[in-house]
Amino acid sequence: AQTVTQSQPEMSVQEAETVTLSCTYDTSESDYYLFWYKQPPSRQMILVIRQEAYKQQNATENRFSVNFQKAAKSFSLKISDSQLGDAAMYFCAYRDGGATNKLIFGTGTLLAVQP
Amino acid sequence: NAGVTQTPKFQVLKTGQSMTLQCAQDMNHEYMSWYRQDPGMGLRLIHYSVGAGITDQGEVPNGYNVSRSTTEDFPLRLLSAAPSQTSVYFCASKKAGTGSTEAFFGQGTRLTVV
């Protein structure tokens, strides 16, 4: 069975600095997708960034980028120029490339941004 | 754009009571699912549906029932609430098929069973 591991329960970063959140996963599939979701205190789940396993190029979305290491099964999220609004719980998630559509989530990393 | 709408947002139940968490989406998505979120455990899949009339169990289905009579609605029923079902519940929907298409989440329901 596929698993997703986030080994950092909490992280802290100074405003305007850069922080990296770690995620590792385990799968025997070759076709899959990886996601980072942000959950602010409002509870809303917001998609931050996605990565297709077949793409070698790391995904980027403005200040958010990933370091996707397929062989190491690692999928870290880098947040550059951190802002107070980035403070939230961040979840890494995995989905098979088939038609199951099931998301498997990590346990989350709570990010605090210090002014 | 309503997206995925969950009701209620908060609920307190007594042990043994039953209730239904409502979920509706207006995006004509085939795939809908229910997750529960517990501290330190992330989100875990309870039940899911790939279309009207089709449902299946996820990782933690015990104590919950679902049905999918229409594309739009996917209610989650707690037959006899237990304190272990105290959690935050999320409904999500997604266009079916492969690809990295996004799953859309409702605002969540915080359920407390006393």
Keywords, separated by commas or semicolons:
heterodimer, A: 115 residues, mainly beta, six-stranded mixed sheet, four-stranded antiparallel sheet, globular, B: 114 residues, seven-stranded mixed sheet, 11 strands, 0% helix
Report what the structure shows.
The complex is a heterodimer of chains A (115) and B (114). Chain A is mainly beta and 115 residues long. Chain A contains no helices and 12 strands. Chain A has strands at residues 3-5, 10-14, 19-21, 24-26, 32-39, 46-52, 60-61, 64-69, 74-79, 88-96, 104-105, 109-114. In chain A, the strands form 3 sheets. In chain A, strands 2, 5, 6, 10, 11 and 12 form a 6-stranded mixed β-sheet that branches. Chain A has a 4-stranded antiparallel β-sheet with strand order 3-9-8-7, with no helix packed on it. A two-stranded antiparallel sheet of chain A has the order 1-4. In chain B, a hairpin with a 3-residue loop joins strand 4 (31-38) and strand 5 (42-51). Chain B has no helices and 11 strands. With 114 residues, chain B is an all-beta fold. In chain B, the strands form 2 sheets. In chain B, strands 2, 4, 5, 6, 9, 10 and 11 form a 7-stranded mixed β-sheet that branches. Chain B has a 4-stranded antiparallel β-sheet with strand order 1-3-8-7, with no helix packed on it. Chain B is globular, with a radius of gyration of 13 Å. The mean pLDDT of chain B is 94. The chains are: A mainly beta (115), B mainly beta (114). The interface between A and B is medium-sized, with 25 and 27 residues.
